[in-house]
Design brief:
about 200 residues; alpha+beta; 8 strands; globular
Length: about 200
């Protein structure tokens, strides 16, 4: 039993250290990409001095959502397929310990209000302690995001995702794109990406 607890703690620590894509002021990732980014489109390369996501990934376009299970705040089990319901679905993976996640949440909540009736916006906490996520959400008073809990990290594991990661699915439940890193979800770039929901 002790070894399982140690393994879970080590995995949690590794995820906390490596998964959260800390939003530093520098362009470390852009600099590391060097000249390899010269042929990429504008939404795939962070611009110097602008708030942009680290990556817009379209390589999974057309794929169905993973069948990973997670829960509502009340503990009822669900999946992304069950949430889609014939409407586009915007899925945000976040955690309370992830500074870029916390930074983008107010703009994601505002975007959820603007998209109401057109795109369902869900925020799935990757916190291993659900109470922390519930307390965070209650304290912040987000009213338009639909919160869910994934204390077993099933979705971030299925996606192989760093946090925050946001994935757009079309009305047929097929992936359109995924964004790694924080983004102002009320800004022009996000509006352009969200327009792809159809």
């Amino acid at each position: 039993m002790v070894s399982r607890v140690a393994i879970v703690c080590l995995l949690g620590a590794a995820l906390a250290v490596s998964a959260c894509d800390k939003g530093s002021g520098g362009d470390g990732q852009a600099a590391a990409a060097g000249n390899a980014t010269a042929g990429a489109s504008a939404d795939e390369v962070p611009a110097t001095g602008a708030t942009r996501p680290d990556k817009v990934d379209r390589s999974h376009k057309g794929e169905a959502a993973p069948n990973a299970g997670f829960t509502t705040l009340a503990g009822a089990p669900t999946t992304l397929a069950a949430l889609g319901g014939g409407k586009p679905l915007l899925v945000n993976l976040w955690a309370t310990w992830c500074a870029p996640c916390v930074k983008e949440m107010p703009t994601l909540d505002a975007a959820a209000g603007a998209l109401a009736g057109k795109v369902r916006v869900v925020a799935v906490s990757q916190d291993m302690e659900p109470a922390k996520a519930k307390d965070f959400l209650k304290a912040r008073g987000f009213t338009r995001l639909e919160p869910f809990l994934d204390e077993k990290l099933a979705l971030s594991t299925a996606y192989g995702a760093n946090l925050p990661t946001t994935i757009l699915y079309d009305a047929a439940g097929k992936e359109v794109w995924r964004v790694t890193g924080d983004l102002d979800w009320t800004g022009a770039q996000a509006k352009g990406l969200l327009a792809e929901a159809g």
